[in-house]
Predict the structure.
Amino acid sequence: MDDTATAADGRTRASYPADFLWGTATASYQIEGSAYADGRGRSIWDTFSHTPGRIANDENGDVACDHYRRMPADVALMADLGVNAYRFSVSWPRVVPTGAGAVEPRGLDFYDRVVDDELLTHGIAPVLTLYHWDLPQALEDNGGWLDRETSYRFAEYAGIVAERLGDRVHTWITLNEAVVSATFGYGFGTHAPGQALLVGSFRATHHLLLGHGLAVQTLRAALPGARVGITHNLSPVHPESDSAADRAAAEALDAVQNRTYMDPVLLGTYPGPGATGIPVDLSCVLDGDLELISAPLDVLGINYYNPTLVSAPGEGNPLPFELKAFPSAETTDMGWPVVPDGLREVLVAQKERYGDRLPPVMVTESGVAVPDVLVEGDVPSVDDPRRVAYLRSHIAAVGAAIDQGVDVRGYFVWSFLDNFEWAEGYRPRFGLVYTDYPTQRRIPKASFAWYRSFLGGTP
Ligand code: IFM
């Protein structure tokens, strides 16, 4: 093995549990394209991205990485990478075009081919996310996640996918990052469906989590042996100083962005206005909801990108905290600080906070956007040493968390391919594989070679 194909602290793949899942991750709207193919319905991201001014350069996911048509070759490349797991999401409007009622068999056929013909044939475990933000537009037209009925439609859709793919999926993830769906989609309006309700977005938060609970119930009934979980995006929150006011601000933001999603799932409670300092209307939480939402899980997915720094609010700020720039030597193309130890910290913090209620954990996303440059030549190449360093340091952080007693079972690099980065469009490149959008060529980057080598292949 290449000497440098170790984590930053010298760990090798063999330093991690033998059955550890080493994977990579994508999401349907970000890579598939073929937005009008095979009976696929509209999603809120089709509408949003076709609304002028919403996405950088008015880009959209109509074509994206053309993965819907190139899927077998993409999975073959993934097999060459040497991963033993792949996290992808199913597009709800591809399977149930209007979100309820008629099922589109060609949509299910596609995911059946992904799982059976390609992933399992190559010995790659399918980790399937049911909802990575592409809500059918027809459901949004009836209120979207602000409407309780959407939670029930989500559970029905989960049952449809379970019936078709059930026994072959290694791990089911209900929702990806409910905090982002609710906060950016319904709170600030910078993501689809573009509603800026601020504190009123809590209805979306609750109905997303209720949808999770109902989907877990459906999956358990349909697939008694299934491994089921949810993925949250967590960020450790640091106070700017040790003052009581700054520490209180950090606790408030931690309650808003982390505990509002973790507590209901693991403890069956919301932190509430006393902890968040924000007057949330909890009237949408009905009797029995939290019991459903907190049904035991087999796995908890954690996506980590960066920590957050806050101080007490300044004059005129109505919030109980004020965001500050986190000091770091390096900032990504998303403007995020690079702080590898934050991954260890956030994993250990969950163990400390939730104890035995925390199920085994998987890092379902970890990765970095850097300004990659394609060098043409006999063999086109992309040298991305910053991504290699990022992966080495974050994989080491996972090892350190395991040393501290956290039961981590997997690590998934975000992302396999450069893809549609939501409101930022195609500029940020997160992939191990460079997507040359005009030609749809795939060019494995130096980080692909590094990960391949770490996983035991030749660089
Ligand atoms: O691209 C996104 C992904 O869809 C969800 N988690 C964060 C990634 C980077 O922003």
Q: What stands out?
A: The first helix runs from residue 28 to 31. The CA atoms of residues 39 and 387 lie 38 Å apart.
